[in-house]
Design goal:
Strand order of the largest sheet: 1-2-3-4-5-6-7-8
Helix content: 10-25%
Shape: globular
Structural class: alpha+beta
Radius of gyration: 22 Å
Number of strands: 8
Length: about 180
């Protein structure tokens, strides 16, 4: 038998690797736990998340074409100010039926904005700010409100933009996670 295949040779290496794995796991748990509660000495995470949602009812009557969105957001309190970012890309299928009806490649709306206000109530947060929007509701410095409920798939959110005041976008998370942290207030 070759010497490098004996237990006497490889056993110390395996034990060392296992110890390094558990040590790294312990430290990464501490680091990631701090990210949720503190992102700096004077800042606190209020809410953050990312994922894919489906808009309830899609485009509405009469076609009810489905609309998927990709959302990402973060808000934190630094001193007395709220800062953060919000991104939402809405996509619809190429066709309403048949080939292409499950290919969400048509950009319907894109919202990119800065979060400047936040109110936390239990497991939900209302984030406010201004955004630049292309597609539906296009404009610059458009006020928006994003109401988000903590959770994974099945969690809900509502996006309202001032340029479309009678059209709230009621969304259900299908992939990802929304976090609302009570220590952010």
């Amino acid at each position: 038998m070759r010497p490098h295949l004996t237990a006497r040779y490889w056993k110390p290496w395996v034990i060392g690797l296992v110890m390094m794995y558990f040590t790294a796991g312990a430290f990464s748990g501490r680091i990631f736990a701090q990210q949720d509660s503190d992102s700096g000495p004077s800042s606190r995470v209020i809410a953050r998340g990312a994922g894919i949602t489906i808009i309830q009812g899609g485009t509405g009557a009469p076609s009810f074409t489905p609309v998927l969105t990709t959302i990402a957001f973060h808000a934190e309190r630094q001193g007395g100010a709220v800062t953060g970012g919000f991104e939402c890309l809405a996509r619809a299928p190429e066709a309403t039926t048949g080939p292409g009806s499950a290919q969400f490649t048509v950009k319907v709306m894109y919202v990119t904005g800065q979060i400047t206000g936040a109110v936390v109530s239990a497991d939900s947060a209302t984030l406010t700010g201004t955004a630049s929007i292309t597609g539906l509701g296009a404009g610059t410095n458009v006020s928006f409100t994003f109401e988000v409920h903590k959770g994974g798939p099945g969690a809900t959110s509502v996006l309202k933009v001032a340029s479309l005041p009678s059209t709230p976008f009621n969304e259900i998370l299908i992939e990802g996670e929304f976090k609302v942290l009570s220590n952010g207030s």
